Amino acid sequence: MHTPGISITRRLRQTPFSKKVFKEGVSNFTVYNHMLLPTVFRSVEEDYHHLKNAVQVWDVACERQVEITGPDAKKLIEMLTPRDLRKLTIDKCLYAPLTNLSGGIINDPVIVKVEEDRYWISIADSDVLLWVSGIATGLSLNVRIFEPDVSILAFQGPLSNSLMQKVFGMDFDTVKLFSIVRVPFKDTSFIAARSGFSKQGGFEIYVENSTYAEGLWDVFFEAGKSLDVSAGCPNGIERVEAGLLSYGNDMTINDNPIECGLEKFCKKGIDWSTGKVKSFIGDKALKKVMEEGPKKIIRSIEMDGKPIPLCTEPWPVHFKNKKVGQITSAAFSPDFKTNVSLGMVSIEYSSGSSELEVETPDGTRLAKIHEKSFI
Amino acid sequence: MHTPGISITRRLRQTPFSKKVFKEGVSNFTVYNHMLLPTVFRSVEEDYHHLKNAVQVWDVACERQVEITGPDAKKLIEMLTPRDLRKLTIDKCLYAPLTNLSGGIINDPVIVKVEEDRYWISIADSDVLLWVSGIATGLSLNVRIFEPDVSILAFQGPLSNSLMQKVFGMDFDTVKLFSIVRVPFKDTSFIAARSGFSKQGGFEIYVENSTYAEGLWDVFFEAGKSLDVSAGCPNGIERVEAGLLSYGNDMTINDNPIECGLEKFCKKGIDWSTGKVKSFIGDKALKKVMEEGPKKIIRSIEMDGKPIPLCTEPWPVHFKNKKVGQITSAAFSPDFKTNVSLGMVSIEYSSGSSELEVETPDGTRLAKIHEKSFI
To answer: Which pLDDT belongs to residue A313?
Structure first.
């Protein structure tokens, strides 16, 4: 299929890094939070090999921030997620699914506590600002909710530590996953977290104030010359190998966190300071799912045969002609020399012994469930 | 600039008509409510002339529906909008901006009353489902809110009445703007409204149940052969000539309905049945804007010189080197042989006498404010 073009208007917002991204020869985009997100520079395969061997600079400004400030900010944040937030301090951010009353996933953001009574929800692709504003309006909470001028620039790849060290002159080896450090730049400083949508390691810098964006981009490209730095983006092969779920692709509002393998982020319970059980939106629904067990679950799934075509729509998964699930992301893996994918399957067919078949646009493929991701 | 490609994944949802759209040779897409919306078939100019002379079939399934049902549905709907909804009956739909506490526009949908205690909000590009669910959750309202399996197929152009008549064997000439009729199809019937995102006249059919979608498409193409029917889409030239505002392009959450010229849809006042003043979210903020008058306003604006380039980002509007506004949508109009645009300007420069200049990517253009749209 010929790749259709994308019509760029103001509604598909450009980012503070877009001029740089165009200059680096971006080939394709997707749209994420009403904003442009690059998807290909050279080719998905070339970008994949480069990501796994060097370091890339990613314009992921589309991971927009929803800022919540004010006296009721903490109360509101606690209501939004099943995750136990007692470890959310100013030197640590947390991945925390947000749920609705039915336990369905509204979004799976990273939450940053910027300072006391001030949070950033760093969001996947849905209008969390409207969800949170709706709740605050309904409950007449004393908070201010808005999208601040903060755009994330990510550095991903095995050489990301070296690149960060070159730029900021600090040692980043000891910074743990989801830990935060402040990095200086010109007359300001930014929050930098060890996080990102790849398994190659790296950082996400929360660039506050767009006027610094292009300067920061240039500094990283200049410093990274000897490290073979290049522009990149979340890679459709690597993230499937890594089992990194994409909201809107692999999970939606119709799925709950238990079905998505996110049970470990649903451990909200006793508040030790008061002894009270903490409640959140969707607590009753999720408690029921946990007690009864999920009916379906996301798995890494391998498919045999020649490289599969692009997965642009869910592909049905069958067990003896009965539909038992669907593949939602898939790619041929050059490193594993097989087709890797992510899909949701009925719990009774989710073990490795099930003989499953996937209906792809170019025919039926035998499928094998993996208990773990490929990388 | 080379048009970048769009990477289609499940997250950019295809519609029940997408296979037909691909078959008709769609060239470009945009993304709207996490769904594919065609933007070009032949060329924007060719599509424009055809729309103004014949009839087009538009896949605007991306105008998703937010269904609200239940005992508190009416109460919730009334809270959402400054529009007086007393005329919202089952044979009429209403264009009704939704506002937040600050009076900012959340969305500018059409609201359909499907039956008693059952509404569809036919939305522009933002997650109204999350906004409405948030409010209902905060207020513990007794409603069910979800996205139903309803996809709009639109018929726009001067021959749309003829096409509708050929297909359904009914006379549509007497159906007024925003009026609703039920049209029969196979073993079901659909809501059809005289509405749509062009000024060429036409209808929008709310196709309930995706399994009917391709069949309906085929019936219209078969019946429309003699009317030169073709696949089309909202046209970037025609809608600017017509002064039709696009949410996300010409207005955002940072603009209120008065600034967007939508004051006539903000007349909610006395409920005659009870004598009470009806309140809505944002009432205090909007009352203040109405009393003080808006500080900026959207206008149709003409720019001189040769055809302008694509408007992919806001262009600054200057009065003697002072920024007084921005252009958000623009195109060269083949019919008017001039550059037409929409932009928000400070109220003191919003009359036709102001000598304004616009900074476009290929230089400064003299600009002239029009009190009315071009068509």
So the answer is: 97
